[in-house]
Amino acid sequence: MGQRAGYVFLHFFGINWSEMPRYIVEETCREGRWEKMRGRAKNRAMCWRWWGLLCILLVFSSVVRGYAGNSQDLIDAAKNGEIAKVKFLLAHGADVHAKDKDGWTALMWAAFKGHVDLAKVLLEHGADVNAQSKGGYTALMCGARKGDLDIVKRLLTCGAVVNVKNRNGYTALMWAVRSGHVDLAKVLLEHGADANAQSKEGHTALMWAARKGNCDMVKVLLAHGADVNAKNVYDWTALMFASKEGHFGVVQVLLEHGADVNAQSKEGYTALMWAARKGNCDMVNVLLAHEADVNAKTRNGETALLIASRYGHFNIINILLTYGADLKLKTRYGWTALMFASKEGHFDVVKVLLAHGADVHARNRNGETALMWAAQKGYFDVVKMLLARGANVNAKNVYGWTALMFASKERFFDMVKMLLEHGADVNIKNKDKETALIWAARNGEVDMVKMLLRHGADINARDKDGRTVLRNACYFGDFSLDWEVIELLKEAGAKY
To answer: Can you identify the CATH homologous superfamily of domain 70-194?
Structure first.
């Protein structure tokens, strides 16, 4: 009997611990039992034991009540997948709707972590399936982002609103697409997900699928009515994203579904320009085969040919020229394809452009030629080729600089030598009255100074401030390192 009584007591305590202190007080005080018990000497010890137990239970009850009432404990348990702990806390008063500092509920964490059974328990206890965090996330978005199909299905069955957006305008479908979960995206679409919903920046699920290169996802979205020509706030389309990222298969699917091959972003970029920039021959070919405008311009006047020339894709240039790319087109600042290629040192591109009749004498807004840029950057072979094609070695930009001055300033000895051999005028001055010799002297280039003097450089030329070559060497150079240049100039009769 005593053993059974003990079991019953423990069972009662285990299930109704919060009621135990009240029960003891009521039973002890009912009908004057305390006075009777206290009045009997043999029961005095029992009385004190009862009161001791009561005190212990009161303390324990307070601790456990505080524990069960801690919302963060429930959220942490859900996050860690501790289903038994979650059940215990819920059974003893934990708030199923409680949120952490970011506004996430236990259900959101369960969905994000993929704890299906735990999510079921929370839902059975009345968890709000459409509650949103501070960032606007719902449990459905969390499940879609994680890619857990079972959780998403259960949330939808429990009334999750499929087209709710977070603070950035993203829906559960967008998260499923970004994460690459095709089957999950299908389920959301079957439950009414809007295939054309847009984020705050105008991104659609189709754009994300195209950007990620998920061909199957693209097909699913198009089959559910996704607008193939939708634009974001920057006027980018899914086709542009796919072309930029090099997803050939996606580009083909989009074109087959009527994607506008000549759509332009706010900067004026087209899918063809991105393919040309990336050097993707197959992409360029398929876009041109679908009548992409080969001479379309960006807001700055760049064409696919100009872009390909800058990035050195000579195979792309051959394709573009075959489709009628205009070599004469310039950017709004007057840059030609030949200038871009020369500046970047793309020898093969320069060769192709010259073979197709590129103007070697063309100038940009600053009066610069392809030769000046190649000389300034030190591309010896490019300069040699341009000179062989008749480039004007003494052409000056709007500031009076020549290719020889640039080469001298940048200390390219062999370049200076080649330019002199092709008739470069050694005494041309820029707007600051500087000559190639003045720059060589400033830089302490002994051999270059000697070579320029041999070609008739004026040893007493003065800059706009009246400084001679010798004074420039002293004034701008490192006296301890450039002493040889200074002595050379003095021996050659230079005036200070």
So the answer is: Ankyrin repeat-containing domain (1.25.40.20)
